[in-house]
Amino acid sequence: MAVSELGQGWYVIDLEFQMIPQVIATYVHRGDQGVTIVDTGPSSTIPTLLAGLAELEIPDEAVRQLVLTHIHLDHGGATGTLLSRFTKARVFVHPVGAPHLIDPSRLLASAARIYGTQMEQLWGEVRPCPAERVTVVEDGETIALGQGRQLRALATPGHASHHHAFLDTESGFVFAGDVAGIRIGGQPFVFPPTPPPDLDLGQWRRSIERLRALRPTLLCLGHFGAVHDCDWHFDDLLARLFLWAGWIGAQLELGVDAARIAERLQELTDEELRLISGEGASLPAYRWASGSYRMTVDGYVRYFRTHRPLASGL
Predict the structure, then answer these.
(1) What is the pLDDT of residue 32?
(2) Strand, coil or helix: what is 199?
(3) 32 and 39 in contact (C-beta within 8 Å)?
(4) How confident is the model over 28-56, as pLDDT tens digits?
């Protein structure tokens, strides 16, 4: 289990999702008024999170704030369970996400359609959050970190309609959730996570330009860790996001079914990652972090149906 210090009071805990390193990150800040956790991860990784907090000598009663970039289970699935343990904590979330924390039934039904019998193994139990402990955060509002420091919420849709990134206004660190993509071990490959139903390419491009304009000193990814070369990272993400859109759209117009497109996309991506890393050591982490290539393709299919109807009738 790896805990790393980022500086400015921030730490990153590797949640070792499914016993694979560098898949899901949780960020922890120590302030004079308590501890803030950005993205809890799923319930299946709670033991690893608690071990990381113990390594940092953080007791349960010190945790005061759980801040979610969005409510997908790999980022916020543990929230309800952790609130029952961290009795002094509140959760801060986008207004669209808040009702699904209080009543996660629709969220779970949607996830079950994708993951089926793997739900428990992957995500663990998902408990409702008490409504009185859920705080809605609007775009531009701030969350106090202590010592006069703040996290500013930044509406950043594209990956999900209910997505916030958070700027530490003192350090310039940006906690980007999934809107800044997936990058494992600092490798020169940024994977765009594009699950249905909320993929929106135009909104995503504008969200990235909003983050770029901040000139972040550190870009803290949900998958995985912190990167310094932010401009290059944003460029690579946008290039691949739209390259895949063009390629997948062309395949669909040729009548290729989504399952075969997903197989071919995985083959091409795995080949590129092997060329980058030599032995392809990062392949397991990229695969687990991205969910599945079929989900990636399905996100584009839904986007094309709602934004750019295809000649094939999709």
Answers:
(1) 87
(2) coil
(3) no
(4) 999 988 999 999 999 999 999 999 999 99
> DSSP states of 25-54 as a string?
EEEEEEETTEEEEE----GGGHHHHHHHHH
Query: Domain boundaries in the chain?
Result: 3-237, 242-307
Which of these, 295, 181, 294, lies nearest to 242 by C-alpha position?
181
Q: At what angle do helices 230-253 and 258-277 cross, to 10 degrees?
A: 150
Residue 48 near residue 33 (C-beta atoms within 8 A): no
Contact 252, 310 (CB under 8 A): yes
DSSP string, 273-313: HHHHHSS-TTHHHHHHHH--HHHHHHHHHHHHHHHS--TT-
Unique residue bearing structure tokens 């969910």:
291
Q: Is the pLDDT reported for residue 312 higher than 60?
A: no
| 86-107: pLDDT as tens digits | 999 999 999 999 999 999 999 9
The CATH number assigned to the domain with range 3-237 reads: 3.60.15.10
**DSSP-assigned letter for residue 190:** -
CB hemisphere CA count around 176 (13 angstroms): 36
**Residue owning tokens 């409702």:** 128
Paired sense of beta strands 25-31 and 34-38, if any: antiparallel
For the chain, the 3-state helix, strand and coil shares in percent, each to the nearest 5, are: 45, 20, 35
Task: At 50, list the tokens.
Answer: 């608690």
